[in-house]
Design a protein that fits this description.
Distance between the termini: 34 Å
Largest sheet: none
Helix content: 55-70%
Radius of gyration: 18 Å
Structural class: mainly alpha
Number of helices: 6
Oligomer: single chain
Number of strands: 0
Order of helices and strands: HHHHHH
Length: about 140
């Protein structure tokens, strides 16, 4: 129950941050990517803020012997293998983000507003995840 509550609160804080920063508006993200046009640096400020918060959180977590809600810390090192699927997925993510101005987090948050673009994006994302799951089962079985 504690893990579910922590996950819900984390998601709620993340969603609020996306709304407050305007990152649920695709035109804002696309303006950030338009470096030779009407560039909007606001996404860079959001990213720097997120990196600063994460840096503090990682420092505090490193002092603990284990995560607060149980389990163990799993931190990759230089010997960790980077799977080709991870790289392929990152490329697909980047292309989709650049074309639509939406990524999964903001798209899910935008569903609450009823934006057609968010509904289409999330529907396509869910269909893509289902297709990937089927293909993964087919090729690994």
């Amino acid at each position: 129950m504690k893990r579910r509550l922590a996950a819900f609160v984390s998601g709620l804080v993340f969603a609020m941050g996306l709304c407050i920063s305007g990152m649920t508006r695709p035109e804002r993200v696309l303006a950030f990517l338009d470096v030779f046009g009407h560039w909007d640096p606001s996404l860079a400020f959001v990213m720097v803020g997120a990196i600063a918060v994460a840096a503090v959180a990682f420092r505090l977590a490193a002092r603990r012997p284990a995560p607060v809600l149980g389990g163990e810390f799993r931190v990759p090192d230089r010997r960790t293998h980077v799977a080709s699927g991870l790289v392929t997925g990152a490329v697909i993510f980047g292309v989709g983000w650049g074309l639509s101005g939406l990524c999964p987090g903001p798209a899910v948050v935008s569903l609450a507003s009823g934006q057609l673009a968010a509904v289409v994006f999330v529907g396509s994302m869910v269909a893509g995840m289902a297709l990937q799951g089927r293909l993964a089962r087919r090729f690994t079985a």
